[in-house]
Design a protein that fits this description.
419 residues, alpha+beta, Chloramphenicol Acetyltransferase, 2 domains, six-stranded mixed beta sheet, 13 helices, Condensation domain-containing protein
């Protein structure tokens, strides 16, 4: 059987998992929360999980091992059933938080819980970042709900160890180091976490009208600007909110982007197909106008894309696979004086998940990432049907819940283009 080798971002995800070891959840994972219309029969969900092919279940219970040349590859495990549970709770977000703080079963990359809200039901899928990113998890659900065998059969991971590209990889490493040196030349503005690595996760969620926001952005920023303008407006809100809370310094706002090609007839659901697009600004350079933020965000994104930084981040981390898991994260954090940025940001502008299952409509799908201890705060958006879901994820102890509510209000105001 051909081996599935780790790409560079897989090793980053594994390192983040090591950093999460002391948290209540114990690993680097995330939730996808589906809201079906009407009642959910737990036994129907259990039967659906039982339909997952044996080879896929073996992948879901695998682990990283090293070949003789030290390149890590994914070794499938036993084809065990997917862990399933059902709870009753009138507070779905609290139930989701509790589930997020529970460890996955040993070596499992997926677990599922049905939440009975007393009339409103939700299905929580807990995915491990060892095997999935957000886009891949959506493709997994598409395969699960549609039975599309072509999605299951796409080869997982890299077919080659990537040990014959040293010149290319070292070139990427040189460019990434140059970018990181420039970013870390000044202290990064951060919010100290007094509870450190042992804090549980916290969430805030808002459902917004996606079409209304797209129309507003199109009116003020022009066509094809939704992703760029949304990132800029969220950055503007974050900058206003952080000024009285964060340490002084340069604001580093790393943005994760999906590297899958749009329209790919065989998109890969497996492993980490994302990379990093760094956004940053100096507090003294910002202007209050939204137009400035959008123009600057667009310019910096185009510069980073033109320089090939997202690809370089993936390739440079191939060089780090020789290190023990987690060490590369500590090396990167040491460059930023112990942190990893001011806050993470991600936007999934369209969904792969079908609108219905067995005739039952899905009303919404929310991504609930679980932040690692550094930077411990993330702002995430995903679009499903007519909703734009805005999610704050942070580690307890960073700030009070009412402060999170204040940040959420600021972001809503910006996205809805209110004065």
């Amino acid at each position: 059987m051909r081996r599935s080798y780790a790409n560079g971002m897989d090793w980053v995800a594994a390192g983040l998992g090591a950093e999460c070891a002391a948290t209540p959840g114990g690993s680097n994972h995330f939730l996808l929360l589906l809201t079906p219309a009407g009642r959910v029969e737990p036994e129907a969900v259990r039967a659906l999980l039982g339909s997952i092919p044996e080879a896929v279940r073996a992948l879901l219970h695998g682990r990283w091992v090293r070949a003789w040349h030290l390149a890590p590859y994914w070794k499938p495990g036993p084809p065990a059933p997917v862990a399933f549970s059902c709870v009753a709770s009138s507070d779905w977000l609290r139930a989701a938080r509790i589930y997020a703080d529970e460890p996955l079963p040993l070596r499992a990359a997926l677990a599922v819980r049905v939440i009975d809200g007393g009339g409103e039901w939700r299905i929580a899928f807990k995915f491990s970042h060892r095997l999935f990113d957000g886009g891949g998890a959506e493709l997994f659900l598409k395969a699960l709900f549609t039975g599309d065998e072509t999605l299951w059969s796409v080869f997982p991971g890299c077919k080659e160890p990537g040990l014959n590209r040293w010149g290319e990889l070292f070139g990427s490493g040189t460019r990434v180091n140059r970018a990181l040196r420039a970013l870390s030349a000044e202290p990064i503005s951060e919010l100290p976490n007094p509870e450190g690595e042992s804090a549980g996760v916290r969430f805030r969620v808002a459902e917004l009208d996606a079409e209304q926001i797209k129309a507003k952005i199109g009116q003020h920023a022009g066509p094809f600007m939704f992703g760029t303008a949304a990132a800029a407006l969220i950055a503007r809100a974050f900058d206003l909110w952080r000024r009285e809370r964060f340490s002084p310094g340069r604001v580093f706002f790393p943005m994760s982007i999906d590297m899958r090609l749009p329209g790919d007839p065989e998109p890969n659901m497996w492993f980490n197909q994302w990379s990093c697009l760094p956004l940053w600004w100096e507090p003294g350079e910002v202007a209050p106008e939204r137009a400035w933020w959008i123009a600057e965000c667009r310019r910096r994104m185009l510069e980073a894309m033109g320089a090939g930084l997202p690809k370089d981040f993936r390739d440079a981390n191939l060089l780090m696979r020789i290190l023990p898991v987690g060490l590369e994260g500590k090396l990167a954090a040491s460059r930023f004086r112990g942190g990893a940025g001011s806050a993470m940001f991600s936007l999934i502008p369209a969904s792969s998940v079908p609108a219905a299952w067995e005739g039952r409509e899905f009303r919404n799908l929310v991504h609930l990432p679980v932040m690692p201890p550094r930077p411990a705060l993330g702002i995430f958006c995903n679009v499903f049907a007519d909703r734009l879901n805005l999610v704050l994820s942070w580690r307890g102890g960073l700030f009070r819940p009412e402060e999170a509510d204040g940040l959420l209000r600021l972001i809503r105001r910006e996205l809805q283009w209110e004065e």
